[in-house]
Design a protein that fits this description.
The protein has 401 residues and is an alpha/beta fold. The protein has three domains: 148 residues, Rossmann fold (3-Layer(aba) Sandwich); 140 residues, Argininosuccinate synthetase, chain A, domain 2 (Alpha-Beta Complex); 36 residues, Single helix bin (Single alpha-helices involved in coiled-coils or other helix-helix interfaces, Up-down Bundle), CATH 1.20.5.470. It has 13 helices and 14 strands. Strands 3-2-1-4-5 form a five-stranded parallel β-sheet, with helices on both faces. Strand 9 and strand 10 form a beta hairpin. It is elongated. It starts with 5 loop residues before the first strand and ends with a helix. The chain binds arginine. The site of arginine (ARG) has 12 residues, from helix 4, strand 6 and strand 7.
Amino acid sequence: MSEKKKVVLAYSGGLDTSVIIKWLILQHQYEVIAVYADIGQTGDAQAIREKAYATGASKIYIEDLRKDLVDEFCLPALWAHAVYEDRYYLSAAISRPLIARALVDVAEKEGAQAVAHGSTGKGNDQVRFDVSVMALNPRLEIVAPLRDWEFGSRQQEIEYAKQHNIPIDITKDKPYSIDYNLWGACIECGVLEDPWLEPPEDIYMLTRAVAATPDEPRYIELAFEQGRPLSLDGKKLSLLDMVQELNRLGGEYGVGRSDMVENRLVGIKSREVYEAPAPTILHLAHAELEKLVLDKETIHFKRHLSQKYTQLIYDGLWFSPLREALDAFFAQIQPVVTGVIRLKLHKGSCMVVGRKSDNSLYDFSLATYDEQDAFDHKVGESFCKIWGLPLKVLAERDKRK
Ligand code: ARG
């Protein structure tokens, strides 16, 4: 008898990917190797392992990818100031290429023919998984059961799970679709599908409601060295610890919620609620420091590149030459981004209240209006004459008419 075909599945331990294991075995006679990517969601590794075996996986890899996520994906996204449609810090979008890379690595190691994921046919994530896998190993087949299978509802999946003794815990099930990692939480479906309804308070997992936050503001000092977050209130932290700590702190002060209708790549609009305390604080601080130490032309030009970069990531093109080239641009300007930003967290808001840097381009004697003013006011007149010359010529022509 020929050997069974092997497939490597991105497994979360939830209902969809549990049913997928069984379905791939029974309907397609695959041997299923599960990969659980730990990217900061709160899963119990031992329970996940047992569950995967109990469901029929031949092997499970539990990969701690938290450091890879922050160092290789969050930091570049921070440097790029990548925010989709002004509000989404791309937590799910940056995690997909990372998970895809883990799947491809395991598939190559195990000699598997295919990889599988649990994304649906109308979301962005299928695109990010498929395109990333194609870019990393074009020979691998991609199986996405949710695009193909017969189940039309969660209830039908639950029935199938019961029939086949798949261990599922529907008591833990929330009526939402939640995607969560160190860079934030994305929450959709259920009552959120009505874009007029205010999100119920129980959907939030990282942030407190403003009413439940401390009355007194909290000041923090965030230091950066060559663009990298270095310390919080003088205490040095790894990027992973920094992100975790800012999620905790921001969450306590209700910082980082957003509620939006966004444009998906596949053409539909969807309503999603996001929580991203750490990215909200880090983006604000990093951008503020760049304002202090970079020249105007670079700051203004960078905005165009940020937008393009964001679009590439959102649209699943992480493993593309343009993304790498843009990363090189953002990295090139980081060496001077060293300094400290002081922020105030209070009642859901995060505000920059102070900044300092040895590389500052802010010149007090040029900016001040007091007697120490060193700016030569007289040159202002000549400057205006030259700057306004084209408009003056134009206005004279129109007067002649
Ligand atoms: N809309 C976000 C994106 O396309 C998140 C997708 C996953 N959301 C979720 N709640 N499962 O990146």
